[in-house]
Specification:
The chain has 2 domains: 2-154, Orthogonal Bundle (Helix Hairpins), CATH 1.10.287.70; 175-356, no CATH class. The longest helix has 46 residues, at 132-177. By secondary structure, the chain is mainly α. It has helices at residues 2-25, 36-53, 58-94, 108-119, 132-177, 183-192, 199-219, 235-252, 259-278, 293-305, 316-338, 367-390, and strands at 99-100, 128-129. The chain starts with a helix and ends with a helix.
């Protein structure tokens, strides 16, 4: 029985330490399906997701889902620490509980208590090791506890820096593509601002964003559960919008070269596919229902009416369908698994951007017109000043 306890203790310690190494230190995706972190997230996300789906209010549901990411990190750290503490307690139990408790009664509970105080380096001194082997195990556990504390201190800032980098571009997308973001609205706003050629530079920035997203989320999968500041934004929706825009540009939009769109499309799809493999989620069958043939015609008419010329050569619709089939099955399965809504291709009616709303009003009064007045006011003032100066005395 003692030998079995020792073996179980060593296995628990080794499993926890290896999982800490793979999760925090190793900068690459771990493909092994049976590991402590994966089991933890599978067992906790499913019931959390089930409870979230029972909440009818979208804002409350998003708030509830937003708690999961940070809370799961704390719970995972506790899980690691508890596993190591139990493992060392079983080691002490296996060698005969060679620690001296105050009541001189040796038990597994005393071993657990001593293991916990040693792991967290409390140094209370009420329980002490009495053999050389017990002292060696104590020193080893104290070193491991101190090392895990140092790793955690360095782990959390790196995680939140990656989260902040991800959210910066998502927040900037609000003014460029609406809320929720859509490819049609992105093209329309750039056309109205006579900045359609600059969309090439914008796609270059999102190529870098997609590469950073892939590297950070594969190294730290917990980031996938971190949600954006607003309930109508998400990294899945932003990635989907970028892929939609690249698809339209690759089919053909006057004034925008295709080369950068192809590069951004490849990088964004690469990130999407690799991240979906973290959760072992198979892509759903592409049924084309996110944008039907009728919706394609509406999209063309919508963009043409706003001055955006989309190519309508024979085979263009088939090309667009083939491009969508490369990524929409993955965005749909991630949207379903993470409960993050996908945006449509066309902007929603009566939708307000996040910058247009506040806690005191649903929509700011005519914000676009107010901006135009602010832009025109200096010009009008300068014109009046010049006229006054030229007026004969």
């Amino acid at each position: 029985m003692a030998s079995l306890s020792g073996i179980v203790g060593i296995v628990l310690i080794a499993a926890a330490l290896w999982d800490v190494f793979e999760t925090i230190v190793l900068p690459r995706r771990v493909t092994r399906r049976i590991r402590l972190t994966r089991v933890f997230y599978v067992m906790t996300w499913r019931p959390w997701r089930f409870l979230a789906q029972s909440i009818k209010s979208k804002k409350r549901r998003e708030t509830f889902l937003g708690i999961y990411g940070p809370l799961s990190l704390l719970a995972l750290l506790i899980c690691w620490a508890f596993t190591v503490i139990v493992g060392f307690a079983l080691l002490h139990w296996a060698i005969g509980s060679n620690v001296e408790p105050p009541n001189h009664v040796r038990s597994l509970f005393n071993d657990l208590y001593y293991s916990g105080t040693t792991f967290f380096t409390l140094g209370l001194g009420d329980v002490t090791p009495i053999t050389h082997l017990a002292r060696m195990i104590t020193v080893a556990e104290a070193c491991i506890g101190f090392g895990m504390l140092a790793l955690v201190i360095g782990y959390l800032p790196v995680l939140y820096q990656a989260f902040s980098r991800r959210e910066v571009n998502i927040s900037m997308l609000d003014a460029r593509a609406g809320t929720p973001p859509t490819a049609a609205e992105l093209l329309r706003r750039h056309q109205e601002a006579e900045a359609l050629p600059r969309l090439d530079e914008w796609l270059r920035d999102w190529e870098t964003w997609a590469a950073d997203l892939m590297e950070s989320h594969l190294s730290y999968p917990a980031l996938c559960f971190f949600r954006s500041q607003h309930d109508n934004q998400s990294w899945v929706a932003a990635l989907s919008t970028v892929l939609d825009t690249c698809s339209l540009v690759m089919v053909g939009v006057d004034g925008i070269p295709k080369w950068q769109a192809q590069l951004t499309f490849k990088m964004a799809r690469h990130a999407l596919v690799d991240i979906s493999q973290i959760f072992n989620t198979s892509p759903q069958k592409h049924d084309g229902m996110r944008m039907t043939a009728e919706d394609v015609s509406i999209l063309r008419s919508h963009l043409t009416a706003r001055g955006v010329a989309v190519s309508s050569e024979p085979g263009d619709e088939k090309m667009l369908e083939d491009l969508r089939a490369l990524y929409e099955p993955y965005t749909r399965v991630l949207s379903h698994y993470l409960l993050m809504d996908l945006p449509g291709w066309l902007p929603q009616g009566r939708a307000s951007d996040n910058w247009q709303t506040s806690a005191w009003e649903v929509r700011a009064p005519a914000p676009d017109q107010a901006l135009q007045r602010c832009i025109l006011k200096p010009h009008i003032s300068s014109t009046k000043t010049a006229a006054a100066a030229n007026k004969p005395q």
